[in-house]
Design brief:
The protein contains twelve helices and eleven strands. The protein is an alpha/beta fold. The two termini are 25 Å apart.
Length: 353
C-alpha cells in the first residue's frame, strides 16, 4: 500500500484535472485516507462466501455506474483483478497473471523470479502504459499524511507514559509473527538496553503488530532486566498503535529501527532516521523509498546462497539471514544515521522530532 503512493502522486502530477479514486480494504485504508492527491477513497471490506461475492458485485456495479476511464490493478490478486474487470473501465492495466490476464486491456510482464529491483519500480511498469515516465524517490517519495486529531491523542499518550519534550524517542518495532521476519527477541532486548546506556535522554518505545504483543512484552521485560531498576523505566510499554497512530508517533521519533515490514515503510513517509533489518528480502527491492538525503541504513547478513527467498521454506532451516545479524551491527548503524540529528539538536532549542 505505501509503495503505491508515489504512483498516486505521479498520476495527479500527470493528469492534474482527473478524478482519482482508490479502492482499498479497511486494514490498510489509513495509509491513503488523507492523501492530498486523491479525490476519493473507497473502503471495500472483504467478506467470505456468497456475502463477499455479492458485496464485490455491488461495488463493481457502483464503479461501473460512475464510468471510470482507467482502472489500474496494483495488487494483482484474484479479487483485485475481478474488480478491475467488472469496473467496466475502457482501459484496464495489470500484470500478466495466469488465468486472469484477459481481464485487462493492457498487460505488463512481471517475471516470477525475485529481481534485484525496487518494488516501486514495478508499479511504474504499469504507469508507463499511460505514458508516465519513470521518476525517483526524491521527486515522488512514499507519502502518508498525519491525522491532526490522532497526533494530539498520541502526544497525550506519550506524556502520560512519562515522555518529556526533551526526550529522544527511539522506536523499535518487533516483528515476531512471521519466522522469516523474526530477528531474535534477545537481540532486540540487547539493542534496547544498549541504546539506553548510550544516552540518558533516550526513551525506547517498543511497538509490534496486533498478533505480536507477547513478543513485545518479552522484549520490554528482558531489556528492563538488563538495565536494572535505575534505568528500567526508559524502556516503555505504550500499548498497541494503529497505523494512523504509528504515523503520528513517528513524527515524534529520534530514530526508527525495525525489520522489512509495513511499519518500516510508514517510517519512510517521515524524515526520521531509519535502520532497516533485512533477512530473506533485499534492500534493493524494499528499502525506504524516500529522498536519499534522509538518513537511512540497511543491515543484513550479507550474501547468502539462499537469499533472497520466497519466504515459504527456510532451506538451511535456521533462518541464518536474520540470526546472523548481530545487535552490534544495528547499534553501529543507528549511530551513523543519528550523528547529524544529534549534532543539530544540540544547537537547537526545539525538541527532537
Amino acid at each position: 500500500m505505501v509503495f503505491t503512493t508515489p504512483a498516486v502522486h505521479a498520476l495527479r502530477h500527470t493528469f492534474p484535472d482527473s478524478h482519482l479514486a482508490y479502492v482499498v480494504e479497511p486494514a490498510a485504508a489509513p495509509v491513503v485516507l488523507h492523501n492530498p492527491h486523491l479525490d476519493r477513497v473507497i473502503v471495500a471490506p472483504r467478506a467470505r462466501g456468497l456475502r463477499g461475492l455479492f458485496g464485490d458485485l455491488r461495488l463493481a456495479w457502483r464503479l461501473r455506474r460512475e464510468q471510470y476511464d482507467v482502472a489500474i490493478d496494483f495488487h494483482g490478486g484474484p479479487r483485485a483483478s475481478l474488480l478491475t474487470w467488472l469496473s467496466g473501465a475502457r482501459v484496464r492495466i495489470g500484470y500478466e497473471v495466469v488465468g486472469r490476464s484477459w481481464m485487462y486491456t493492457h498487460r505488463v510482464h512481471r517475471p516470477r523470479e525475485l529481481r534485484r529491483r525496487h518494488s516501486v519500480e514495478n508499479q511504474w511498469d504499469l504507469l508507463e502504459q499511460l505514458g508516465i515516465e519513470r521518476s525517483n524517490p526524491s521527486t515522488f517519495p512514499v507519502e502518508m499524511p498525519i491525522d491532526p486529531a490522532i497526533a494530539e491523542a498520541v502526544d497525550r499518550r506519550l506524556a502520560a507514559a512519562g515522555i518529556r519534550d526533551r526526550d529522544r524517542i527511539v522506536i523499535i518495532h518487533v516483528s515476531a509473527g512471521n519466522p522469516f521476519r523474526r530477528w531474535p527477541l534477545a537481540h532486540f532486548a540487547t539493542l534496547a538496553a544498549a541504546l539506553v546506556n548510550e544516552d540518558p535522554v533516550r526513551r525506547i518505545v517498543i511497538t509490534s503488530g496486533p498478533s505480536e504483543h507477547g513478543a513485545r512484552d518479552a522484549v520490554i521485560a528482558d531489556a528492563r532486566a538488563r538495565l536494572g531498576p535505575a534505568c528500567a523505566d526508559r524502556v516503555l510499554s505504550c500499548g498497541e498503535f494503529s497505523l494512523a497512530e504509528l504515523r503520528a508517533l513517528l513524527e515524534r521519533a529520534f530514530i526508527y529501527i525495525g525489520g522489512d515490514s509495513g511499519p518500516l515503510h510508514i517510517a519512510a513517509t517521515t524524515k526520521v532516521p531509519i535502520v532497516g533489518l533485512y533477512g530473506p528480502t533485499l534492500p534493493v527491492r524494499s528499502a525506504p523509498w524516500r529522498d536519499p538525503a534522509l538518513p537511512t541504513a540497511s543491515v543484513d547478513a550479507g550474501e547468502l546462497p539462499c537469499r533472497p527467498c520466497d519466504q515459504r521454506r527456510c532451506a538451511p532451516g535456521d533462518f541464518r539471514c536474520l540470526t546472523k545479524i548481530e545487535p552490534r551491527q544495528v547499534l553501529e548503524a543507528a549511530a551513523r544515521v543519528t550523528v547529524t540529528t544529534t549534532r543539530d539538536s544540540a544547537t537547537s532549542p526545539t525538541r527532537s522530532r
